[in-house]
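Your task:
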Amino acid sequence: MKFHDISCSQCGACLKECGPLREAITSTDNGIRIDLDLCITCGHCVAVCPTDEIEHPLSPRQPLMDKPPAPEAAAMFLRSPRSVRCYKNEGAPRETLLRLVDIGRYPQTGINTQGISYLVVDGREKVEALNALFCETALKLIPEHPELARLKEVIELQKARGEERIFRGAPQLIIALADKDHPRPRENAQFSLTFIALMAPTLGLGTCWAGYFENLAVNDSFAAPFWKFLRLAENMRIRGALMVGVPDVHFRRLVARNPLKVEWR
């Protein structure tokens, strides 16, 4: 077992915060002891310490938090991102995309499992090639999987109109990956990609969930052609995807949603 001892004023904040999780922290005569084998590296003990006395070897201290925005400003921000289906031909610079995907590291995940990495399909030609592979794969699968019949309609519409429907002409695609043995891959990917989608407009970018692609790509029974195309490591699996690029449309207003429904018991 590995332990990390800290001398501190013993205010109890870290014990209170860690208790409901793993009880990885215990009191000592002059401070606390962290059981590094039990610790899930959530960093909460460091974050709540009012005296900055905790130095955690597995969770380095991060900057102080700013005051949250006013509720009205937060609501405006959360309501403003749109699903973008019209993109300029040029993709975003890699430096911008790195800033974008970096925010995907920060959402809360069950038991701090995290574990999502990203693969960026960078360039229209590559996205178009993936589109062609998607259509070929879907048409082969549909006869034995009638639940995929809707995909045939989309593929036929794409061909008839001469416009891409699967990736909407996006110049880039962000694919969320996880180890095949990850305990919570799909939900963690959705958390991460949601953060990315919320961040995108602040960088002048737009996103849209690649739902048609996900119908096949996140299903391990259907996804082998995409693993090969993307040259994934043997242990990695696709768990989500977002189109991304510079929008070729400007949204001037917020949009309505269905009325709130809530019940109290």
Q: What stands out?
A: The domain at 3-48 is CATH 3.30.70.20 (Alpha-Beta Plaits). Residues 124-141 form the longest helix (18 residues). The mean pLDDT is 96. Strands lie at 3-7, 25-27, 31-35, 117-122, 172-179, 206-209, 236-245.
